[in-house]
Design a protein that fits this description.
Strand order of the largest sheet: 2-3-1-4-5
Low-confidence stretches: 1-9, 97-109, 111-120
Number of strands: 5
Order of helices and strands: EHEEHEEH
């Protein structure tokens, strides 16, 4: 994941890399979920736009690592949203990629795209 600086005055900043279906309202649901959990949104980067799936990097500011875990758990409950990577841009090398979310290979990503219906 290409990290972008996440400026933080209070708390800690982390970058989430997410893959989700390219359909209206999904990004809004993600932002609302982060907000409801008390996280502050920062930079958002479109890492890989696709016809069916989008990969986006979202920086969030949290109080501590426990707060981060609460937000990530809430984002994971969203339908068809995959948390691919969690990193701390201030600490290069600190990246946690859950085993179930390693979707970087084109083969795995292609399988996910085939299974995700596009609703318009």
């Amino acid at each position: 994941m290409k990290s972008t600086p996440c400026e933080s005055e209070v708390g800690q900043s982390f970058a989430l890399q997410l893959i989700y279906p390219e359909q209206g309202g999904v990004l809004a649901q993600i932002a609302q979920t982060i907000d409801r959990c008390g996280g502050d949104l920062g930079h958002m980067n479109l890492l890989d736009p696709g016809a069916r799936l989008t990969t986006r990097g979202i920086c969030i500011r949290v109080r501590d690592e426990r707060h981060l875990e609460k937000i990530v758990a809430a984002v994971r409950t969203l339908d068809k949203v995959k948390v691919v990577e969690i990193s701390n841009p201030a600490s290069p090398g600190l990246a946690r990629t859950p085993k179930a979310a390693r979707l970087k290979s084109p083969r795995v990503r292609g399988k996910l795209q085939k299974r995700t219906p596009v609703r318009r």
